[in-house]
Amino acid sequence: MVMRTKERIHPETGQRLVRGKRSVTLRYKGMKEKVEMPGWYAEDDSTGESGLHDARDMCVSDRVINRMKSREKGFYSPEEIHHIRKRKLGITQQQAGLLIGGGQNAFQKYESGEVIISKALNNLLKLLAVIPANFFL
Predict the structure, then answer these.
(1) pLDDT per residue over 27-45, tens digit each?
(2) Which residues are within 8 A (CB) of 93 and not within 5 positions of it... i.e. 6 or more apart?
(3) What does pTM read for this prediction?
(4) How far apart are CA 61 and CA 101, in angstroms?
């Protein structure tokens, strides 16, 4: 059984850090979005600048950055992908990954924002959203 510590010491500043969330503004190509970023922070740091983040913490910021990248490219958002797959096509994530492409877990990653869809997949989803019956030909 692994015990998680409730505090850490910053390796550079020596400050005592506690687990928490801070509001951080992420930027990408002129866009910006606020996110509640989990991590280890100094108690007196409201900006989150002295924070330490592990891989799970970084998933939060990665998904926000991916959303901004998708928006910049004019691609569907994770919510729009979910809507097309579930409401328009009526198929599961596994079926979509196997039938449309990307593999069994691809649509879980697209719909969570973990992975950005390709231009080809975005274009295919545009067609299927308009005429879903074409999918079953």
Answers:
(1) 999 999 999 999 999 987 7
(2) 85, 105, 107, 108, 111
(3) 0.82
(4) 26
